Amino acid sequence: MIKRFVLSGGIQALGIGLSALTTIFISRVLGAEDYGIIGYLTSLTVLFALPSFAGLPQFLVREISKNMGAKRFKKARSLISWSFWYVVGLSSLGIIGYVIYLNYTASDKFNKDIILFSTSLILLRPLLYRTVAILNGVKLNYLSQSIETVLFPLLVMSFCFVHLQYFEEIKALNVVQYQVISLTIIVITSNFYINNYFRVAKFPIKNNKTDWLKGMLPFIAIGIVSGVNSELATVIVGLTQESADVAYLKIATQVGMLAIVSLKIINIITAPTLANLFNDENNFQAQNVLKKSVRLVSLTTFPVIVFIFFYSHEFVEFMFGEEYVNASVLIKILCIGYLFDVLSGQVGTVLIMSGLESYSMYGVLFSMVLNLILLVVLTPIYGVFGSAIALMVTMICWNILANVIIYKKLKIKCWVH
């Protein structure tokens, strides 16, 4: 596991570095106001795209891993083919809803061109998540990570850099355009690779659609609630506060996610293994995997979080500029929640891979309701700082609840011990 962690960590580190450079570059050249607009529109596109990808990545990883392991290749290939049209169909509905929503709520706030281009993200991002999930399902983790974490920010950064060689300034619209172009390139090439690798065209969709949809229902519910929960703060801040406040919150959450990148790496590596172990009812070996993984993640993450917590002001000023120093307080608040998240272990992955989707759904639903209540109460009083407090409290409560459920049902300890 340590060898795979180091290799995946190298890819993730490269991707995180490129993403950080892209974020720093874009936030500096755009300024807090325009960067906040991009952050708000990005969150909206995620919300309207949710029905098309909610639960799909987790479902694909589990089912493809199981089918490939059992040598049911034909079923795995049919599932891959079906998932493409599933995403395309529901994304189309999401695009319609997105355009209608912005037309009635923010038609004067945003340029029509940026709205037009941002609609493409509702289709392209779910297709990217689908590709990554398929590759993870067959344990091509390094390739999937390279596509998601390295190639996308590299392309966006390259397009922005070339733009500035010919024009004096770059605007929010240009950034969205380059995101769309980059995702289009990645989706087309990766889909071509998948079709050839699995030879999807030779295996038409069988009468498994109903079974797949039934199997996905818990994943869909969890995915929608989780997605709404993760973007809720940005949307509420965008509706009630200034665009610059959205930028501060986005910077803070991105720095926090940077700090816990090792948790994401270990989730990617262990998800297929845990799916097979729980399928074989081998909870003892699953506990060993989880015990090692949480210790490894805690060891690599704790020093990073402590450093960012105590030097958040200097870190933000150096990386993003003085215009974003208000984000430093938000980072301190969120670091508490992220530290608790790391020490709590892989609760989300365990609930999904062990077949406890219904319990996960109820837990995430509770978190969303709690988050919404806290955001509505605290944001009007404390502004974006209240939103950060709401996110921190929600993270802590969710991890406690999830660990209690897992221990009661599986007698497995996910937390560091």
UniProtKB/TrEMBL annotation:
Q: Where in the cell is it found?
A: Cell membrane
* Bilayer topology annotation: Multi-pass membrane protein
Source superkingdom: Bacteria
What GO CC terms are in its UniProt record? plasma membrane
Q: What are the TM regions of this chain, as residue ranges? A: 12-31, 37-61, 82-102, 114-135, 147-164, 176-194, 215-239, 251-274, 294-311, 331-352, 359-382, 388-407
Q: Which Pfam families match?
A: Polysacc_synt_3 (PF13440)
Q: What is its main location?
A: membrane
Alphabetical UniProt keywords = Cell membrane, Membrane, Transmembrane, Transmembrane helix
- This one is known as Uncharacterized protein
Look up and give the organism this protein is from. Answer: Vibrio metoecus
